[in-house]
Design goal:
The chain is mostly helical. The protein has a domain of 62 residues. The protein is built from five helices and no strands.
C-alpha cells in the first residue's frame, strides 16, 4: 500500500486535507505548509478533483486555490520570460539564416 510522508494512507490523508480546507483561512503556519506540500508534491489529479467536487468545501477551497495555488510566482514569470526569449531568439536566427 502506498504510504505518504505522514504514514497515513492516501484516503486518510485526503480526509485530513478536507478538514484543513474546511478550516481555511484559520490555519496555523505549520498546517498551511503541510497543505501546500500535499497539493504541490503528493496530491494526484483524482485527489484534487475529489476536493474540487465537494460542494461542502466549495467556498474555502476556492479561497485557498486563489490565495496559494493559482497565483503566479516569480519562478513562473521567469520560466515564461525564458521561454519567450528562447522562442524569440530562435525566430531571429531563423529569419537571419533565411535572409
Amino acid at each position: 500500500m502506498n504510504k505518504t510522508l505522514d504514514g497515513a494512507a492516501p484516503v486518510a490523508q485526503r480526509t485530513q486535507v478536507e478538514a484543513a480546507i474546511a478550516d481555511y483561512p484559520h490555519l496555523s503556519e505549520e498546517r498551511l505548509a503541510a497543505l501546500l506540500r500535499w497539493f504541490r508534491k503528493e496530491a494526484s489529479a483524482l485527489d484534487v478533483a475529489m476536493l474540487a467536487s465537494n460542494e461542502a468545501l466549495a467556498e474555502p477551497y476556492g479561497r485557498f486555490r486563489a490565495d496559494h495555488i493559482d497565483r503566479m510566482t516569480a519562478q513562473d514569470v521567469m520560466k515564461g520570460l525564458l521561454f519567450a526569449g528562447a522562442v524569440g531568439l530562435a525566430v531571429f536566427f531563423l529569419i537571419w539564416w533565411v535572409a
